[in-house]
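Suppose you are handed a protein chain with no further information: no name, no annotation, nothing but its sequence. What can you learn? This example shows the usual starting point.
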Amino acid sequence: MMGARRRKIASIVMPVVLLITSFVLLNPTLPRAVASQSHSSILIVGNAEFTPANGVTGGTGTASDPYVIQGWNINVCWQCPYYGIEVANTTAYFRIFNVTVSSLITAQPATGILLKNATNGRIDNSVVQDESVLCCGGIIVDSSRNVVVNANNAEAGTCNNFSSCSVYDTVGAYGSTNVTISGNSIRADASGNVLGVRGSSNASILNNTILMNGLAPIGAPWDPSNGIVVSSSGNVKISQNSVRDAACSAYSPAKSMIVGGSSNVQIFGNNITSSYSCGSGILLQSATGSIVYHNNLVNNSVQASDDNPGKNQWDNGYPTGGNYWSDFKGVDNCSAPQQNICPSPDGIGDTPYGFTSAQDNYPLMKPFVANGSGSGGPTGGITLPVDKSPDSRQSSS
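A reasonable first move is to predict its three-dimensional structure. Written in structure tokens, the prediction is:
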């Protein structure tokens, strides 16, 4: 009797053991995500200082195996150095990944993450909270090259020009080459630029979410934050960004996008919106060779301006078209480059959209849509709605 019971228990237990064993063999334990650990400010000057003592958690400094600084939580405290992480004078490949840098209140100007004269660096999936009044930027790339700033969350508080900093950008690239700033969520409350590029070349600003959330008090010695500002730079691409002015200051309205003293800047596929019909959209100031098309400009008090007539282009010709302007009052009855084949609507306004010293010859009747693939040649993945496509024009004519 007892033997029969044991055999019965064994017949039940053995399949269970085999099932568990097979599950373990076929499903090995995956490495667990490393929780953020506190770390003091990190300073690396020169390749030799990529060491564990300086927060390096892995890598050998090559393109396929970069040095990694990962998983740290750094608080720039009251009397701390002026940086959370600084990498300077390096040529080795490195990656700053999944770190949090906070400077909530400091006794001196502070920068969250600073790359200075660094090459082959990447900053991604990190959080920078620069909420101190005395702040010198969240993520700053200075005099560097071959750098990617991707998928970070950067926030700046009420920075102001009481500090000794020359800039107050939440994310910035200065005097740098081959820099890509993409897929970031960036916010500023007051003063400075949310994203600034100055004195740089071959820079790409792609698919970022830019929030101007500042409302400077009347009479305050600082201004509300501006959005994307490019100055004294060349060969810059600004595409598929969402720029929103979420506050309205009658004292000093914010500007969503400024290109000043720069050349060969492509601005296409961006959403530029004001929540309160306030501020400015795209401003070209002493710019040359810039092309602006397939952008949505919605509810800005000044949708656009260009002080260099004839030196820039505000559409991409026909049939690609120009931009969508929320205040465009024209109609669409005709088609063709001269809009003289009627009736044959093509999704493009029959008359230009004019503004200060310039015009969009082919304003879109509806907002553009993006296919999200990043393909599509010079339009960078931007496609027009069905009623604006060349094929639909041929079928309707």
